[in-house]
Amino acid sequence: MIAEFGQISLILALILAILLGTVPLWGAYRQNHALMNLAPSLVAGHFVFALAAFLSLATLFLRHDFTVINVATNSNLLLPWYYRISATWGSHEGSLLLWILMLAGWMLAVVVFSRKVLPKVFLTRVLSVMGLISIGFLLFTILTSNPFDRILPGPIDGRDLNPLLQDPGMIFHPPLLYMGYVGFAVAFGFAIAGLLGGRIERDWVRWSRPWTLMAWAFLTGGITLGSWWAYYELGWGGWWFWDPVENASFIPWLLGTALIHSQAVTEKRGAFPAWTVLLAIAAFSTSLLGTFLVRSGVLTSVHAFATDPERGVFILAFMAVVTGAALLLYALRAPRIMTGKGFDFVSRETALLLNNVFFVVSAGMVLLGTLYPLIIDFMGWGQISVGPPYFSAMFILLMTPIVMLMPFGPFTRWGRDEWRRVVAPLVLSLVVAIVAGTVIAAALGAFNLRAVTGWIGGIWLIMGSLSHVWRQKKNSRFKLPRGQLGMAMAHAGAGVFIIGVGMVASMTYERDVRFGPGDTLEVAGYRFHLEEIASVKGPNWIADEGRFTVFRGNREITRMQPQKRLYHRGQQVMTQVALRPGFTHDLYIAMGEPLRDGTGDWSIRVHIKPFVRWIWGGAFLLAIGGLLAASDRRYWRQQRDEAEARAVADGAQPA
Amino acid sequence: MTPTRKKRLAVVGLILLGVSAATAIALTALNDAMRFSIGPSEIVAGDFPEGRQLRLGGLVASGSVHRDTQSLAVNFRVTDCIHEIPVSFNGILPDLFREGQGVIAHGMLDESGMFQAHEVLARHDETYMPPEVERAMALAGGNLVCGEPIEDHLAAVEVAY
Amino acid sequence: MIRMLAPLLVFLGLIGLLLISLPTAEQRRQVTSPLIGREAPNFSLPSLHDPEVSYSTADLRGQPFILNVWGSWCFACRVEHPYITRLGEEAGIPLVGFNWRDERGDALTWLSRFGDAWAFHMVDEEGRAAIDLGVYGAPETFLIDHRGIIRHKHIGPVDQASFDDLMRRINEIRQEAGV
Description:
The complex is a heterotrimer of chains A (655), B (161) and C (179). By secondary structure, chain A is α+β, with helices and mostly antiparallel strands. Chain A is built from 21 helices and eleven strands. With 161 residues, chain B is an alpha+beta fold. Chain B has three domains: 1-34; 40-122, CATH 2.40.50.140; 131-160, no CATH class. In chain B, 29% of the residues lie in helices and 27% in strands. Chain B has three helices and seven strands. The termini of chain B are far apart. Chain C has a five-stranded mixed beta sheet. A two-stranded antiparallel ribbon of chain C has the order 1-2. In chain C, 41% of the residues are buried. At the A-B interface, helix 13, strand 1, helix 14, strand 2 and strand 8 of A face helix 1, strand 1 and helix 3 of B. Strand 1 of chain A pairs antiparallel with strand 1 (34-38) of chain B.
């Protein structure tokens, strides 16, 4: 019954999405207020049914209803309840359902927070465009990937959720990531609504800024969690692998980063409006592209979902319609877009333009590297894959100027500024960064190019942010607005991140060693002693467990127990890493394999990862900075003032 | 031409120059970072680019895995059921590295015909075969042994440095 | 106008590239067995119901038969089970089970729960015979004629369409064998 209820909810959600995508839009075109007024209620209904469908699936998982194929293939009787909930979005079908729920949630949020402040025509267009997107995803789910399909009679027990996904990081990673992906649909909706209106105004850019910032912050958080998960769950000790699936989430992030900066210019100065629209379209389109790449099987990847070319065709067609229509609309309407005030070479506009150039080119480079195997295959030059060296090289090349220029941005005035005025307040920061960076790196015994540049770059960004905050505080009687504070925090976060990357890249100790019970490895002041290798048993797995005692000098500092697990169902083997996290370095032990040569020895991977937490810490600051900026009262209060002023003019606005 | 326009033109010109430079560098870097997917039969036939990083796909030949007793050095042969290529590797093999199972080795061929791998990847559960392995096997007309094609949801944990 | 169309053109190029790549992805999934038209390998395996008894493919020489690869762990086998049962009832030639990488207890429970339409089951616990047979995954269904030649292999669960196709082929093979 529950499955059928979920199924019906999905269909009802689809009907409401179709109504939402057509009727209010027609109303907006005809200036029919009765039709436009339908939009908020349709959004609410759409959300209720999407939620009902999602909760139905979660309930089916919780109740072990193996007559539902999706439950039978992704869960079993031994799976603990919290992983049964996360299994709801662990499969391809379930993750689509989550996607739909998030989209419905974002739409509802737009209604709740912006209904009073957006002109009705504009709000209606935004909601209708998002409704159209929802139609695509609902159709995709119902036609090709129905999570409620049944099999009767059901099996006695289900298969299992892949053990790699049986992890706390995996409970939160997909929802956050999707919040980001789907959040860009709001920015997309605003952009298309602006184009439909025939005019791009600074207003709509301002209205869409907090939404874009939120989506960007969630995406940042999602990617960070994914990286953290890969670090401890895959047993390789890396934090980023340039895998196609990772790239699929990184491309929208890079474009989103460009977008939040170009929105600032368009809002404040009216410059690059067409470019901002294009970026909003691109950020969402690359989110769709990511979905396509992950689920169609055109690229081989690590954690790809059930790849199915048939689904690929559907997503490709959907993407062609959505992005194609958006770009066509852009081509038709962009010539009418306003142009902003001119600006000088030394100005905030130029700084942000440079930011955009570097981020967009970076996104292009990642896209090129990701799709290159397809191009080569198409040309008939054989099958290839592109290794991480390409991505690393490109990144160092493109990110270095960004880091060098970043602190100057906030100090530059709009329109016109002077070199001297921009550089002067940062001279001290620069000197501090170079001196402190070199000294710290040397003191840590990391006197090499990557570590030293990492420290200098990182301190440069942190000092730059601090001095900006300090100057703003000094010059203003008011409290620093959250937008400024968020920006400073995000920029400083980038600094923290860079320090982590530089240290991990240059100072990681990693070795694969042979270990037998009683063996000891001494490294970097630590002594790893393997006491024994024991057999242990979990709820749905058995494992070999290495029991290590770690000494620093003669003092025992910790015990570490890495495991090699064998999951009962599906006979899947998994490496469970033992970690001792620390502010300046992590100790990391992973079990390799039993050597089966009669000695009872194992191959063991021992890593010491300096400052690896700073990578995620910095990324976390980026995300928090984004959320802080999104909560700036300016976005919400000004809207209301303007909306009131506009209320009279609203009826007269041409469609 | 007003000074503002001139300046703007200079900015646009600089950006164009930068972007084209970046593209040129990217293409060179791509060329260097490319790994060619091949199978054992292609190596035997000499049908592969020399001096390049290769991505060798196939099955681990039965009874071919030999571990050094002192170190982590390991030798095995990769087969497509027609030809076999010896592979040498030093380090930890992936979780599901087994005889008769699909693997991918990244590395280069040395003068003696030994494939020096710096990285070995394997499928991660019963439900997946890397496409390169499939392709190598199909090319050679060999047999295929692997998981269920119907349910290949989670793919091999293919992690690359 | 041209300048404004540029993004659209770039995007269409991208879509084109992806569209071309899709058939390749499809091809990767469809693996044709090189063993078709060749003689089935000879192997001898224990019976599922009675480990003391063993069956060999040589015993079956002289009559066509269906070989169905399955495992209790294999979800798709559960999906195709009704059609396999119909094959057992309607094909008119022996339906042999090839129990692959399974545990005896699990396999027997599975059969008693869903029904056992097979003539008998061979057990390949280690999966070595499956290597010779070129098993790609479970489920798979082989048609072997009276001379011991593999005539057809169906990869994946049998559904109505593939059931009809199998029955047509079975009838051909039966006519050739004169049974």
